[in-house]
Design brief:
By secondary structure, the protein is of the alpha+beta class. It has a domain of about 210 residues: FAD/NAD(P)-binding domain (3-Layer(bba) Sandwich), CATH 3.50.50.60. An eight-stranded mixed sheet has the order 6-5-13-14-15-12-16-19, with helices on both faces. Strands 2-1-11-18-17 form a five-stranded mixed sheet, covered by helices on one side. It has a three-stranded antiparallel sheet with strand order 3-7-4. Helix 1 packs parallel to helix 6, helix 1 packs parallel to helix 9 and helix 3 packs across helix 9. About 45% of the residues are buried. The chain binds 8-demethyl-8-dimethylamino-flavin-adenine-dinucleotide (RFL) and P-hydroxybenzoic acid. The site of P-hydroxybenzoic acid has 11 residues, from strand 14.
Length: about 400
Amino acid sequence: MKTQVAIIGAGPAGLLLSQRLDLEGVDNIVLESQSREHVLSRIRAGVLEWGSVEVLRESGVGDRMNAEGHLHDGTDIVWSGTNRLTLNTRVYADRPMMAYGQTNITEDLYAARDAAGQPIVHEVEEVVLHDLESTPSVTFSKNGRVERIDCEFVAGCDGFHGVSRSSIPPTQRREFEKVYPFGWLGILSETPPIDEIVYANSERGFALCSQRNPMLSRYYVQCALDTNLDDWPDDRFWEELKARFPSEIADSIITGPSIEKSIAPLRSYVSEPMRWGRLFLAGDAAHIVPPTGAKGLNLAISDVFYLARALSRFFNHHDDRYLESYSDMALRRVWGAARFSWWLTLLLHRFPDQGPFDLRAQEQELDYLSTSEAYMRSVCEQYAGLPFES
Ligand code: RFL
Ligand code: PHB
């Protein structure tokens, strides 16, 4: 097989890149190690920055999001029992946010790839990237047969555990990492969500009320890293969730059976640069942020915005300036979101080694945020998403 761009991974980054390249007339093939059913069953992010909404719309996959996504003005934070503030991005950053699940985005992207008649090669094994500094190729096995794709570029969109990042020699990249001493226990339930998205800093630990659609709610509680899902039947989860919110919110949470329950560890990680030779990394393949602030999916979308533009300029206009600047440009946005997610994680969680001073400092910062318009504007600008560079 021969193509212009071999894309490794059919998560949101790989599928969106394929869609955007196709719209620009750039030939590509997507390889995915899992089955289509597996990819579509993953429950992950839920909140989109307005910049991401615009990228999805201009990629021709905005129709269902426009009809079913829930526009909201921002997110609330509650702390110290009854204190409450709103990160109102419409007021302080001139743009709303959109609640629309990653699972739906992936479905919409699959539908668009199907409509374009471009199949994704699923359940590939032993993916190996070759000659990334000269004439790249990718080998893989499918149904026991070894196949090979010759290409001009490889896009590594294969998530944190993929093969792309580790194909870069360790001497050619630098890693930055922070691991947090807790995770998020999340459930999905077919119950009407509460009106707002609300983060809680409570003495029992962080909690979050979120949503997917009028009959689908997503809730999280901070949990210890050694938490066993078997110890968390639904009744215990609901009781713990409600205990972390003030009664006017707790009383409005409608409970029901969970349809999914999982634990996500929290980590901040960046690998620099996001390019080596003719390999370009995008999304979780290059960086991970803790979910506080909902930046992971939004970063995958902005990386792809930059990368698709760079590849299109190269193939359609013989201009490699954007390819040359891709890593620096993408990393400026990545570090903005990595810093913001780290800061919000420190502000809203309970840490095992936190003393009375640290707790007062958290309270003081939240009080300051709720009274200083200057600070509120700065936080909302970052929560709403920093602008893309032209
Ligand atoms: P993905 O979604 O991980 O997709 C990578 C794809 O590559 C495939 N793959 C391979 N394919 C071929 N060959 C190989 N050798 C391969 N190795 C892997 C994988 O099967 C997969 O299909 O990365 P992408 O596209 O960069 O998208 C990033 C987002 O998925 C991610 O940033 C967010 O979901 C992060 N995240 C969250 N972000 C938020 O903004 N809000 C959230 O609430 C939120 N919750 C989460 C999350 C990530 C989680 N992970 C990674 C476990 C919850 C979880 C549990
Ligand atoms: C979600 O809806 O899954 C969600 C919302 C906000 C976050 C993280 C996850 O910060």
